[in-house]
Specification:
Mean pLDDT: 81
CATH architecture of the largest domain: Orthogonal Bundle
Radius of gyration: 28 Å
Strand content: 5-15%
Structural class: mainly alpha
CATH topology of the largest domain: Tetracycline Repressor, domain 2
Number of domains: 2
Number of helices: 13
Order of helices and strands: EHEEHHEHEEHHHHHHHHH
Helix content: 55-70%
Number of strands: 6
Length: 331
């Protein structure tokens, strides 16, 4: 998805389109005195935060902060005072990648280098502050709507029928999920009639799983902005999210099962709740992370489709595990 800011910057833009090509270079062989003299003779354009140390072929070797250069002994070599290796942004990076560098490393500027480590330019934080604030507002609103199957632009339609056309198709996933949930309940009607308490806890079992599923979808969408996932990255993410879901499921299930035990005094109901919630929440975390990543990997838009599909799949699997465990326990 290409996200554009109010100033026309696209998160998928190559960072090279927004860098400054004029940056403060210092040859590695200079002393501090020679470097200061060269700077006075040819003042660098714009605000200078860091000086970039390069070799004869303009390959980046390190970075010298302005304060360090000014405070160093005049006979000290630039190569001795530089910070090495320098944190660089590759020329293949996008604007989104550059924003992540500012957030992660909290520096005021980053050099941009090519595949051979030649210095191409500098990305300055001032170029991004206004855009980041605007993106934060836009994306937070857009993702909130898209998780429930609505695009923010579509939600602002003045025509009632146009709004219906844009919003109804993705509700079909929820309708299908609800119908299948009713069918599932019919298959396990004997268990529900035998132990009415099982039906009492269905809302909380589904609510916990759905909440975790939407959390996983939301986190995955945030990480996918401007990125194309690999199969290895997807598998690794599913492992982490599955572990997180398991911990969340056990903690939530323990609370609900303890409540059921104190309230009803039926250990089989408590065990059924513990197993159903633990399994349902674990599956919800995995499916919530899987669907956005798979859709993006297949070159499809994950923002609108992920939420409804994840919720429907979560409801189906959670109820199936809950009812199967009940059938086994109360056989």
């Amino acid at each position: 998805m290409a996200t554009e800011t109010s100033l026309g910057m696209d998160l998928d833009d190559p960072v090279t389109q927004h860098m400054r090509t004029e940056c403060a270079r210092l040859p590695v062989h200079l002393t501090a005195a020679e470097a200061l003299a060269a700077i006075r003779e040819n003042p660098p354009a714009g605000r200078v935060v860091y000086f970039y140390v390069v070799d004869e072929e303009d390959r980046l070797l390190g970075v010298v902060p302005t304060r360090r250069l000014l405070m160093s002994a005049l006979d000290r070599k630039v190569g001795e005072m530089m910070i090495h290796p320098a944190t660089c942004i590759p020329s293949t990076a996008t604007v989104f990648d550059a924003c992540e560098f500012f957030i992660l490393y909290r520096l005021l500027a980053f050099p941009v280098v090519d595949a051979e480590n030649r210095l191409l330019g500098v990305v300055d934080v001032e170029l991004y502050t206004d855009e980041l604030a605007d993106l934060d507002r836009r994306e937070a609103s857009d993702d909130l709507f898209q998780l429930i199957g609505v695009k923010l632009q579509a939600s602002q339609q003045e025509s009632s029928f146009a709004g219906f056309q844009n919003r109804f198709p993705w509700l079909i996933a929820n309708i299908a999920g609800g119908i299948m949930a009713a069918v599932l309940s019919g298959f396990f009607q004997a268990e529900l009639e035998k132990v009415v308490a099982l039906a009492l806890f269905i809302p909380v079992v589904l609510a916990l799983a759905e909440s975790v599923s939407i959390q996983s979808v939301s986190l995955s969408l945030q990480r996918l902005h401007g990125r194309q996932p690999t199969l290895e990255a997807i598998f690794r993410k599913l492992q982490v999210e599955g572990g997180t879901g398991l911990f969340l499921g056990i903690a939530s299930a323990a609370c609900i099962a303890a409540t059921a035990m104190v309230w009803l005094g039926q250990w089989k109901v408590a065990l059924c709740l513990f197993g159903g919630i633990s399994g349902g929440v674990t599956f919800a975390a995995v499916i919530g992370a899987l669907i956005p990543n798979v859709l993006r990997y297949l070159q499809r838009e994950p923002q609108v489709a992920s939420g409804p599909i994840a919720l429907a799949a979560t409801d189906m699997m959670t109820l199936t595990m809950y009812f199967l465990l009940a059938r086994w326990l109360f056989a």
